[in-house]
């Protein structure tokens, strides 16, 4: 008589995986499984931040940083260089000048900070003034790094920051870390009139 397969062979592996997820968290178990199976991250899972920022995220995977928008208790705000090449450039250069990647949200200062950073700025190529640190933070305003960027990018960034605050649950007074995803798409030179971002359709206004 032929034997039928009962399916009980899958029972214990499933129980073990569920138990591991309960103890260590689903992301940790999934990421560990990917490593064991040799499954690599997609290019979009790459990011850069300031040197001090990397120290704060070294215990987390890129997927946790970019998808969960958290690393432990630290909240993350992501700027996508694929959509905002020149803004990514300005932020990265600002980090090189010592402006921190960890900022504190304070939307009440937005108008004052924006005026202090960009009030006298005159665009040369039909673009817009971009400032880092963001105007909606305590660190914004005087001392921010400014650079001309495409107007489309500036509008895109407004939505990215507002959406990023919401997604990562960054409230007023909360600290958060800024990271740039798709760092290979950061503009290599300053804006001179051409919007070179690879993914412009996502942020057309």
The best one-word shape is globular
Helix proportion of residues, in percent? 25-40%
Number of strands: 7
Q: Which strand-content bin applies to the residues?
A: 15-25%
Summing up helix and strand content along with how strands pair, one would put the structural category as alpha+beta
Spell the H/E element sequence. Answer: HHEHHEEHEHEEHE
From the alpha-carbon coordinates, what is the Rg to the nearest angstrom?
21 Å
Low-confidence stretches: 1-8, 23-44
Spatial gap, N to C terminus: 70 Å
Quaternary status of these chains? single chain
Overall pLDDT metric: 84
Biggest beta sheet summary: 5 strands, mixed
Count of alpha/pi helices: 7
Number of domains: 2
Task: Provide an overview of this structure.
- It is a single chain.
- With 205 residues, the chain is α+β, with helices and mostly antiparallel strands.
- The protein is 38% helix and 15% strand.
- The strands form two sheets. Strands 1, 2, 3, 4 and 7 form a five-stranded mixed β-sheet that branches. A two-stranded antiparallel sheet has the order 5-6.
- Helix 1 (11-24) packs across helix 2.
- The N and C termini lie far apart (70 Å).
């Amino acid at each position: 008589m032929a034997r039928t397969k009962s399916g009980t062979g899958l029972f214990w592996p499933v129980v073990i995986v569920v138990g591991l997820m309960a103890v260590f968290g689903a992301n940790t178990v999934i990421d560990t499984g990917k490593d064991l199976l040799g499954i690599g991250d997609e290019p979009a899972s790459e990011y850069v931040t300031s040197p001090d920022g990397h120290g704060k995220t070294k215990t987390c995977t890129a997927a946790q940083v970019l998808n969960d928008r958290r690393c432990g208790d630290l909240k993350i705000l992501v700027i996508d260089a694929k959509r905002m090449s020149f803004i990514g450039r300005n932020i990265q250069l600002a980090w090189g000048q010592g402006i921190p990647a960890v900022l504190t949200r304070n939307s009440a200062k937005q108008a004052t900070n924006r005026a202090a950073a960009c009030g006298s700025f005159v665009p040369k190529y039909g673009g817009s003034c971009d400032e880092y640190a963001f105007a909606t933070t305590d660190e914004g305003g005087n001392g921010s790094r400014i650079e001309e960027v495409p107007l489309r990018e500036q509008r895109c960034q407004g939505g990215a920051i507002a959406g990023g605050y919401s997604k990562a649950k960054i409230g007023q007074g909360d600290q958060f870390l800024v990271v740039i995803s798709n760092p290979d798409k950061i503009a290599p030179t300053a804006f001179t009139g051409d919007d070179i971002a690879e993914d412009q359709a996502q942020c057309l206004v």
